[in-house]
Amino acid sequence: MAASGQKLLDKLQKFREGELKDEQGAKEKLEEIHKFLTDHETVSPSDCTHEVLNGFGDWWVSQKSTKRLGIAEDNTVDALYKHMATMYEMGVPLTLGEKRTPQFKLLQDIEIRGTKDDYVKPEELIGDQKKFLHILGKHMKELFPSLPDIHVMIFDGSGTSSLLGVLQTTVRVVWPQIIVDKDRAGTIMDYMAHKLSSSEDEDIKALETRMKGLSDSNSWKSMFADSIYFGSVAIRMPLNDSVAQPPMMRPERRAFKPLNIFSFQNSSDSQMQEIQVLYDHTKGGDSFESREFIKMGCTRMPTGTPLTDWVRPTWTGESRPPPGRERPSAVSSGVAPSRTGRNVHVRTTAGSDAPNKPRGPGTGGRPQLETKKDVERQFLGSLEEFKTHLEASLKEEGVIEVDEKERKIKWSQRAEVGAFIVFREDNHRVYFHGKEHQVRSLLTVCGNFVQTVSEAAGSTNGRTSVAGTGYAGSQLPSQAFAPRGAGSVAGRTKPTSLAAVSASRSVRSSAGNAGQASASSNQVPYQRIVTVEFEADAEGELTLSIGDTVTVEKDDPEDGDGMDRWVYGLNPLADKRGWFPLSYTKSCASAGGLEAVSE
After folding, report:
1. Quick count: other Cβ atoms within 10 Å of Cβ 192?
2. H or E, element range at 193
3. Eight-class DSSP state of 114
4. Which of helix, strand or coil describes residue 568?
5. pLDDT-based confidence at 69, cuts 50/70/90?
6. Residue 506 falls within a domain, yes or no?
7. Is 567 helix (H, G, I), strand (E, B) or coil?
8. Handedness of CA 476, 482, 488, 494 (dihedral sign)
């Protein structure tokens, strides 16, 4: 039964309070768009061409919705673009992404981390007189000399990142004439990063200084997001809004809006080539309609579309390897190594999930139920001060309840039952409860006003109750995401970098290690089963998936007692060796738990 226009409008206004710009005729438009989207839903992942970002329950999504669309025919694709344009012009853009095809238009997503008050404005990067744009165009013409003129479209999705809690530059560059595959796109991205890194141009150096001044994590290599090539998530479409990660799960009000269209012309001047401005958003005009921007900026191409002829770049350097793969040394042949498909995740102080990581053989291909997590932090201010912070950070995503008698405040998630935060003024403790991904996100949002509890605050043994909540954790909650010290993996959280273990000493032989075995280390070699996914961050670490059986070949008691130590071993499934935390595994002889037992 089709939903009424009034119900759809009410739901839209509830989800997007204050965003709707044009209510005239909105009911009829919403009915038409709702019918189109629901009529083209598909249950088959193989038929899916577009999907809702992050599984968000947008205004048109029902409880039984698959949130996947199968839209491949030209006439239905054009209709989808028309509806996207309508929603964008109404001020409530859709939140859809397109699934990447084997061949696609070349696009580059540029992401630069800012602060709460400042960020690199798109106009600092993009403009017909900007050296950054000239470098991109110059080297793109070198790679594709068969194209007499090269067009490029620029979209801006900058704004506050809910994940990072700061302003972020998000600029998309689309080259609609250039068709690539993911390996070629990755090579071009690495080549551009290399050219920017090695540039002696004063403007480029000044721009790098500006980026570094905002965040030490900013670099030419990190600013190009490669998850659009190697991840399995959908690519956000032009004029569509981004969606905050769980538990916030809301549109971030920074839809990709069109900024410019440029054409790079042939020029005898190798330093500043001629750039023709085909569209400039600051000048307005009706030269392009919204749906035209979508059509030109979307990247899907029919399977089998020929790749654009190119000249493969050569340089001495290295490309960024996907997580879990060893970083290659400098390329002696001068040809950048090919890249392989793995998703790249943003790292945060609270840790990051790996939702698209392949499952281990022990899972049978079935997704694992995510366990609940209790985490403890401290806040040294008053109840009123904590409430002020909550209202500023999470008021829109949940409900705040204050118990003046108990001097306790509780925030509960509005979208789904389960995640909550409790602060008690008597002990200045903040208790986070929810699924692991929810707790990670909440810690990221609250990280600027809560602190890690010191070890002296409680015992590290036994079960610790979460005061005032009725929940208990299997380890000290304050250790859930904060390591106790170098090399520690307390609370099954990733310890400090392997460099603290492997860089300080050479790898001991298996025979020598076996001779030093004690009550806190097993006789090597022995096998264990992975119970917690572990993604390598540095060279020499070993990526693990739940269900993998790994062989421990080096186990030294100097690295810690009990489970809090790094061990070295082999993952036969990946045919790789490296270091990993022992607490992420369990004994093959143990039916449950994670305690170390003699093998």
Report:
1. 21
2. helix 182-197
3. -
4. strand
5. very high
6. yes
7. strand
8. positive
